[in-house]
Amino acid sequence: MNSLFKLATAAVFLSVLSGCQNHIENPEMQQCAQQNYQCELNCEQQSTGDGMVHKLCSTKCIESYNQCKENAEALGAVQ
Q1: pTM of the complete model
Q2: Confidence band (pLDDT; 50, 70, 90) for 1?
């Protein structure tokens, strides 16, 4: 039941992400969002429940996304 909930949550998130893609003007930011989604999805698949392993993995995803976003914003400012 728990994995069904996770699958449904991932499907909803993907739907929202797909719907928001048209609103992201910076293609680099869109790539960051897609990479973050994949990272979070991998965390869900590699860990069971919301334990420490999942939290550490999610934290790494957030840090990676923030760095990607910072780089994308800097690229946007240069262009």
Answers
A1: 0.64
A2: very low
